[in-house]
Write a structure and sequence with these properties.
Layout: H1 22-31, H2 33-48, E1 54-55, H3 58-68, H4 74-86, H5 92-98, E2 100-101, H6 104-113, E3 120-123, H7 139-142, E4 145-148, H8 173-193, E5 199-204, E6 210-214, H9 215-224, H10 230-243, H11 254-270, H12 277-294
Parallel strand pairs: 3-4
Antiparallel strand pairs: 1-2, 5-6
Helix pairs in contact: 1-2, 1-4, 3-4, 5-8, 10-11
Length: about 300
């Protein structure tokens, strides 16, 4: 029986100036050396499995944290992935639309690594390269590329109801170019409908999953509780959830927990500080009374 065709590749080129790339340096500056380890681990997993993309969800995050080790927890992985999306190490438009991690650079390296294969299958919705540019996709490789489509039921947006044309005809470079540009349009369209807000902090829940608190939510809570340092209170909440595993909240109750916490903090801020007003008023009354009593004494 013939061995099934392998999707991934056994190795990928890592440029000698990889660590000098500004995007990678920013990841290191924000997350330290563990951030670099996570990025390299993600790239290895992408090239090893599908070759040019990775479906990203909670299970993928948990498995990646377990694979990397070194004291890295799922929250660290999530933060680095978000950092990579912000800095275009991974394409944010495709991620928002389909929940996958990929980039033009990853795809460019992949198709060159598998150029000796008789057929190169690519999911057309994930395609980020310019097929009309021979420097991007050499003709010898393009002739081997076969496009397939994702199952629309598994995507975050129903492709049949999407107004953007996703059709890519590998026989027509003009149509391919139009289809490829639509990927960027998809990203901008999805962003306009449901703009992603960067996460500010994560609160661990009873089932060890995480509730992502976004920066947009932080701004909303600031308006609701103006007397409270919202960012600091969420840091306190995180510390409380981390150190009280038996009292953590379920997903259905986390918002009630947050609002109760902030409401209590707001009330404490509005309570006036204790003063010696009563004592001072009595002292003043006593002094005035003594003056009146002794006024007529010789």
């Amino acid at each position: 029986m013939a061995r099934p065709a392998k999707d991934g590749i056994d190795y990928f080129p890592l440029d000698v100036d990889f660590l000098q790339d500004d995007k990678i340096r920013l990841i290191k500056a924000e997350f330290g050396s563990k951030g670099i380890l996570i990025v390299i681990s993600l790239l290895c997993d992408i090239y090893r499995t599908t070759g040019y993309y990775k479906v990203w969800d909670k299970d993928s995050c948990l498995l990646m944290a377990d694979a990397v080790g070194c004291g890295i927890v799922p929250e660290n992985i999530t933060q680095v992935v978000q950092g990579c999306l912000r800095r275009s190490i991974f394409n944010n438009g495709v991620f928002q639309m389909f929940g996958i991690l990929t980039s033009a650079g990853i795809q460019r390296r992949y198709i060159r690594a598998v150029s000796t294969r008789e057929e190169i299958q690519i999911i057309k919705e994930y395609w980020l390269l310019d097929s009309s540019d021979k420097k991007d996709v050499p003709t010898s490789i393009l002739n081997k590329v076969t496009f397939k489509t994702v199952n629309s039921e598994k995507t975050t947006v129903n492709l049949e109801n999407n107004a953007v044309d996703l059709q890519i005809n590998p026989q027509s470079k003009g149509k391919e170019s139009k289809g490829e540009k639509s990927i960027e349009q998809i990203g901008s369209t999805a962003k306009a409908v449901s703009p992603a807000s960067p996460p500010f902090i994560s609160l661990i829940l009873r089932d060890n999953s995480e509730y992502q608190v976004t920066e947009r939510q932080i701004e909303e809570w600031k308006a609701l509780y103006p007397a409270v340092d919202i960012e600091q209170e969420f840091r306190k909440m995180k510390g409380w959830c981390d150190t009280n595993p038996s009292r953590r909240k379920a997903k259905s109750g986390i918002k009630k927990f947050i609002n109760s916490w902030l409401s209590r903090s707001q009330g404490q801020k509005e309570i006036p500080q204790p003063q010696n007003r009563i004592k001072n008023d009595w002292d003043e009354y006593f002094k005035n009374s003594m003056k009146e009593m002794t006024h007529d004494l010789p």
